[in-house]
Each structure stands twice: as C-alpha cells, then as structure tokens.
Amino acid sequence: MKLTGIRSIEDLAKDGGLAGKRVFIRVDFNVPLDKKTGAITDDARIRESVPTIKYAVEAGAKVILASHMGRPKPGKREGLSLEPCGRRLAELTGYEVHLAEDCVGDAPKYVVQNLRAGQICLLENLRFHEEEEKDDENFARQLLELADVYVNDAFGAAHRAHASVHALPRMVRDRAAGYLLLKELRSLARIVDRPEKPYIAVLGGAKVSDKIDVVESLLNVVDALAIGGAMANTFLAAQGKKTEASRIEDDKLPLARTILEKARDRRVEVLLPVDVVVAPSLDAQSGQVVSVDAIPAGTMALDVGPKTVELFGKQIERAKTVFWNGPMGLFESKAFSSGTFEIARIMSRASGFTVVGGGDSASAVKLAGEDVAKGFDHISTGGGASLELVEGKKLPGVEALRSAEETA
Questions:
Q1: Which domains are assigned to the chain?
Q2: Alpha-carbon span 381 to 181, nearest angstrom
Q3: pLDDT at 238
C-alpha cells in the first residue's frame, strides 16, 4: 500500500494553515450500542479519532465531523442517532460537541456558522440519507457546502465507495488523511508489502465463503495458515472428518479441498483443529473437549480445544509476522471463549509483529483483557477494510485522497 500522492493533516497545516477553515473530518463512529440501554459498549473508534480532531481544533479550524451508524432503513432513525457518540467525544476531549439535526441542509450550516473555539459540529448519521451509500454526487455537493478542507480518518469505511468517503474528497482541492487512517495503512503495509518471515495467518469466524479472497491472497505470502472457528469445520469435513451437528458449508467442500491442494503446492502449512469443544446447542452452558476424530453424535464444535491452541501457539511464537482475523469459536459465550482468548494471550506475548484485522477478533482481544490488548502491535478499527487490503484491493476512500497527478 503506497501512500504516494496522499497528504496528511499536518501537510495541510503547513501548506496553508487550518486556522479559520471549515475542516470536514470523516470519522468512523459506527460503534456498538447496548440494545437495551443504547449505551456505547466499545468506544475504541471514538478514542482513535481524538488525535486528528484535537490537532484540527488546536490549529484553529472549525471542525465538522461526519460518520455513519448502523444500517438504517429508509425513514427509520430510532436507535441510530450519533448523539451517544457526541456525548462520549465531549467526555474524552473536553470540547463542546454540537449535534446537528441533519448532515445536510440549513441545520448543519447554522451550527457550523456559530462555532466558537473549542466547539465541534457533529453531523447526524450520514446513512439517514440513502444517497450516502449510493455515492451520489448531488449529496456529496450538499456536504461540500460545509467544507473548505477534507480529512478522512475513517479507516473502517475506507473500503466503501460512498459519497462521504469517495465522491466528496474528489471535489475538494485540500484533502488529506488523518492520523488514524495513516496509522492503519502503515501498519497493514507491513503485512501486505514486506512481511518478515516466517509469516503465519490465523483465520476464524463462521464462513469459508467470507474469506475466500483473503485465503487465496495469503497463500502467496504466508508460511503457515491456521484455521479455527466454524469455518474450520468445513475444512475438516473436506478431509473426511465426521463433524456431526457442527456448522459446515456443504457447497464449499470442493473449494476447501482446492485450497488445501493449493497450500500443498505452494508449501504452505495448513493447521486445522486437532481437538474441539463440543455441545448439543449454541445455548449450552458448558462443553466437552474431544478429538476431531471422535465428535459425539448430536453435538457441534463451538471452540478449539487446548491441543489445538498449543499447536497454533507454537507457530505464532516462532513467527516474525502474525495476522489474525476471526475468532476461534463462540467467544461471546463464556463456555466457548477459552480458545479465542488463549490465542489472543499467546499472540500478545509473541515477539513478532502482530496485527488483528478488526471485527470480532478485535473485540475478542479487548475482552481478553487490557494487558492482552496492549501486547499487540496493531489492532485495526476496520475488519472489512483490513481484509480488502490483505486481499490486495485498492480502497476507494484512500484512492480518492491521492493528488490528481497520482490518479491520472
């Protein structure tokens, strides 16, 4: 991932100063909320945005923040307002955060016009307008009415060709990347462009189909591929193991066999579970450790077992580069969290460069404990975006920041 032609927010400050300018910062405040109380359950994305926001405020800019939240249906706004994010940002920074009633039109213009030093305008959820996800240029022009300068600090949305991350920046001459976006790109470049060997990727999660492209890409660069989670069941079944009631993708069995063959051809070691924790249902309060060759009838694999953790752990400990995406089991349930948390602990102590590719695996690392999370070199704020980078794809939100000379 080359950053040629992409300026930083500090470059903009050098070029012409940000004082008095309306600096439109696309952040990613799409944080998880408690379904009952509406409270933020993980504020990592808000915390990560603070350095860029503070830099702009201290440079004398009028700061306008824009983000999406969830996937609102047309005309529906309940539970998806950015108000909780505004409150949390105010607590973290000490700034006054004014939430505009909308993200376009007279309401945000009025708030921006009346901003004073130490005050911020947070626009309401961009996705309350369906034009955002359609990359609609007219909608982008309405957002443009609020911006003199554009900064993208929303890595979690950078893989989306949406109006606020793709159409809008191309309309603004002075555009740049914020601190979080640059940190993400530089960290992930170390596992995409120049990974130190040995390199192991640990993949988990529910479906093989969700990870096809990333597996294909990783087979070209890794020395070992460790597969856990429900997706491992499909690979075990492809090897002829009786997975009983475990979740598998029957239509992906041929693909799993092909991946295993490609790995052999490319001399990539594929590590699959040798033992698993099984139970009769997802709601079970306890599980039983069994060999993958002896899964009892009527049970399903819901976590990797201790021997598998040891097997994966030995490879992680000797690796110089480790990439992890996807939990090893149903970690949300205490009975089936051990495998995921143990892998997190081993990785946090590893001497190699360790990256967690966002999503559920990032949540799992944080649940494993603050000390565990601190042991990682990089915990991405964007699961989808980090996977697309690993797949070798260009991110629309990043490409839109490049200068005209670089995109020509």
A1: 9-180 (3.40.50.1260), 187-390 (3.40.50.1260)
A2: 10
A3: 96
